[in-house]
């Protein structure tokens, strides 16, 4: 099984973020948190796009694997 086909492991950072109690945070803290998460989304998107471009270049050079 290719690593990208494997399910995301439980207990990783995304799972912990999704289950964290947000009640203790003030509105300002929540706004700052949203900005940090949006920056992280942009970083991950750039990495994904670069990986896709790298994969497309490899597929073009060596032929696509099935």
Q: Please, could you describe this protein's structure?
A:
65% of the residues lie in helices and 0% in strands. It has 66 residues and is mainly alpha-helical. The protein is elongated. The model has no long low-confidence stretch (mean pLDDT 89).
Number of helices: 2
Shape: elongated
Share in β-strands: under 5%
The biggest beta sheet is recorded as: none
CA(first)-CA(last) distance: 13 Å
Compute the average pLDDT.
89
DSSP E strands, number: 0
Secondary-structure-based class equals mainly alpha
Q: Topology as H/E string?
A: HH
The residue ranges in which pLDDT falls below 50 over 5 or more consecutive positions are none
Based on CA atoms alone, the radius of gyration comes out at 17 Å
Provide a quick synopsis of the model.
The protein is mainly alpha-helical. The protein has 2 helices and no strands. The chain has helices spanning 13-19, 27-62.
Give the key terms.
66 residues; mainly alpha; 65% helix; 0% strand
SSE inventory with pairings:
Elements: H1 13-19, H2 27-62
């Amino acid at each position: 099984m290719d690593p990208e086909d494997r399910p995301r492991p439980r207990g990783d950072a995304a799972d912990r973020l999704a289950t964290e109690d947000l009640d203790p945070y003030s509105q300002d803290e929540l706004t700052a948190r949203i900005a940090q998460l949006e920056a992280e989304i942009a970083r991950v998107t750039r990495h994904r796009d670069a990986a896709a471009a790298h994969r497309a270049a490899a597929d073009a050079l060596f032929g696509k694997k099935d």
